[in-house]
Design a protein that fits this description.
Length: 152
């Protein structure tokens, strides 16, 4: 049984605070005031932390259940993050590039930068490797380039 209660989760506001619920589940209060759930697992001397989501979106009961699932996966010798990504499928280069651009576009000073990146990739990259899954891209192939020369 966990040590935390829903009211204790609400009351935790001091930045840097890390409150343990038991069995490796922690509530971490970030410097900005946000609260996140973290599950810490140790196996064969290796310690790993798994993020379970924001406390504003993930309830205490859900965090406990997710932590229980993660511990079970680790006990079986599986990597929960790898298994989740495998279940989602491996993205193509086009899909991965779209995710990266979406993640970084908020930090760019001008909205046109996103369009410029997309236009450049559409013109020079996507026609050649846009359909290739990212795990298959492992080196430069001059046959991918229209001139036949490798450009670095």
């Amino acid at each position: 049984m966990g040590k935390l209660s829903a009211s204790a989760v609400k009351a935790a506001t001091r930045p840097g605070l890390r409150i343990g619920d038991g069995d490796g589940l922690f509530l971490v209060v970030q410097p900005g005031g946000g609260k996140n759930w973290v599950c810490r697992v140790q196996k064969n001397g290796n310690r790993r932390d798994f993020g379970l989501g924001s406390a504003s979106k993930v309830s205490l009961a859900t965090a406990r259940e997710r932590a229980r699932e993660i511990r079970a996966w680790v006990e079986l010798g599986l990597d929960p993050i790898f298994e989740r990504r495998k279940a989602q499928g491996i993205p193509t280069f086009r899909q991965a590039a779209a995710r990266v651009i979406a993640a970084h576009s908020k930090t760019w000073r001008n909205e046109k930068h996103e369009k410029q990146w997309l236009q450049t990739l559409d013109a020079y990259v996507f026609p050649y490797i846009g359909h290739v899954q990212v795990h298959e891209i492992n080196g430069w192939s001059s046959s991918n380039w229209p001139s036949g020369r490798a450009m670095m």
